[in-house]
UniProtKB/TrEMBL annotation:
Pfam families linked to this entry: SecY
Protein name (record): Protein translocase subunit SecY
InterPro entries the UniProt entry points to: SecY, SecY/SEC61-alpha, SecY_CS, SecY_dom_sf
Cellular compartments annotated: Cell membrane; Membrane
UniProt lineage: Bacteria, Pseudomonadati, Bacteroidota, Flavobacteriia, Flavobacteriales
Organism: Salibacter halophilus
PANTHER family: SECY/SEC61-ALPHA FAMILY MEMBER
Gene: secY
Length: 445
């Protein structure tokens, strides 16, 4: 315990780290306060009565938005439209040569892509806002439900709210402790955890519940799932690498060294989950603009998070996105070229194209089980719901919520630990580093 307090004290001794943490906390506070600001013209009491017992995708989106979705807050649509825009831009980067060219232009190209992503976010939010108002805000909760008096101003406010949340995330990434978008999603998720657990506790301790024993079993299973999730996020396949001795002017300049390339089992992190979840919203958004009962029945498949087809499609999309995101973030050819330039080689493998093929094969073999395991954890809430766990608590029982929380917490701890180690302070773990997060040769990031 003393070591923990010493580490916390060391964190606040580093001025830059302290300022970044305080800025991050301040921006998160602004986000949480904004999630309680209700749209003008909405009666929050009537809205609360109408939204009680929300299930399905609406409940999941409400968790991601930290409760803002059900409160008809100015941040009701949260960061998900920005995620959808990012998905579209990455897909365009594969199919559209102009976008590919921007991706290769370095910092200037990145700024252009970010600007186009923001414009696309505005379009997506403006498209989702009418559907949200039509399905989640009943006329009984609106003082004056006219188009000019309520609908149009609310669309503008919801769009501005999403852009503001996006801005907060970018500021946390640039001037805070990083991972701004993911951190905002995680904060929204954690905000609903205490309430969900208390609801489950009351349910099990009440009439017809399983009592304290069932609560303890659920918590134990949840801890096991958390452990498995940490193993998935931390797991790496270490590819050994040798570096030849450098000799200049007849003198040996550097000793040969043996290091490794850490290829993560889940190199894509939480992004496949976020991507898949964002795309699952598209059919419902489109149906909101149609009056067809046939389309409404088809879209209902995407709203039943405990149903077979929802989870089957969700799992398949996660596996596909895991491969897709791994392919666009890790380039075996670039890794092989970097190794060759630094006089490095994998024992038993020729430098150049053979090294690239070897790394690609290893990456393919470890990505498949990682993707399947990722999909399995993502659909665990469906099993929990069908086993009798309350809907709100089941969403934390593995699934998207837990994966995002574990991934973001570990990445944030890694950011903090890097500052500590650079200043020669002890890290957050006894070994001095988070296992599997740091490496001697970080080419696979």
């Amino acid at each position: 315990m003393k070591r923990l307090f010493d580490t916390i004290a060391n964190i606040f001794k580093i001025e830059e780290l302290r300022d970044r943490i305080l800025l991050t906390l301040g921006l998160i506070l602004v986000y949480r306060l904004g999630s309680f600001v209700v749209l003008p013209g909405v009666d929050p009491i009537v809205l609360e009565e109408a939204s009680e017992g929300a299930t399905g995708l609406a409940a999941l989106l409400n968790i991601f938005a930290g409760g803002a979705f059900s409160r008809a807050s100015v941040f009701a649509l949260g960061i998900m439209p920005y995620i959808s825009a990012s998905i579209i831009m990455q897909l365009l980067g594969i199919a559209v040569p102009a976008v590919q060219k921007m991706q290769k232009e370095g910092e200037s190209g990145r700024r252009k892509i970010n600007q186009y992503t923001r414009f696309l976010t505005i379009a997506i939010t403006a498209g989702q806002a009418p559907g949200y108002l039509a399905t989640q805000v009943p006329d009984a909760a609106v003082v004056d439900p006219g188009f000019m008096s309520f609908t149009l101003p609310s669309i503008v406010i919801l769009t501005a709210g999403t852009l503001f949340v996006m801005w907060l995330g970018e500021k946390i990434t640039d001037r805070g402790i990083g991972n701004g978008i993911s951190l905002i999603i995680m904060i929204g998720i954690i905000a609903g955890l205490p309430t969900a657990f208390l609801f489950e506790f009351d349910k099990q301790m009440g009439d017809g519940g399983g009592g304290l024993v069932i609560i303890l079993i659920e918590v134990l299973i949840l801890l096991v799932v958390i452990l498995l999730t940490v193993l998935l996020v931390q797991g790496v396949r270490r590819v050994p690498v040798n570096f030849a001795r450098k000799v200049a002017g007849g003198q040996q300049q550097a000793q040969g060294a043996r290091q490794y390339i850490p290829l993560k089992v889940n190199a894509s992190g939480v992004m496949p989950i976020i991507f898949a979840q964002a795309l699952m919203m598209i059919p419902i958004t489109l149906v909101n603009f149609s009056q067809s009962e046939e389309l409404a029945g088809w879209a209902s498949l995407f709203n039943d998070i405990s149903g077979f087809w929802y989870n089957f499609i969700f799992a398949v999309m996660i596996i596909l996105f895991t491969y897709f995101y791994t392919a666009i973030t890790i380039n075996p050819q670039q890794m092989a070229d970097d190794l060759k330039k630094n006089n490095g080689f994998i024992p038993g493998v020729r430098p150049g194209q053979d090294t690239s093929n070897f790394l690609d094969n290893v990456l393919s073999r470890i990505t498949l089980p990682g993707a399947i395991f990722l999909a399995f954890i993502a659909i665990l809430p469906a099993f929990a719901i069908n086993a009798g766990v309350s809907n709100n608590f089941a969403l934390f029982f593995g699934g998207t919520s837990l994966l995002i929380m574990v991934g973001v917490v570990l990445d944030t701890l890694q950011q903090i630990e890097s500052y500590l180690l650079m200043r020669h302070y002890d890290g957050l773990m006894k070994s001095g580093k988070l296992k599997g997060r740091a490496s001697a040769f970080g080419m696979a990031g």
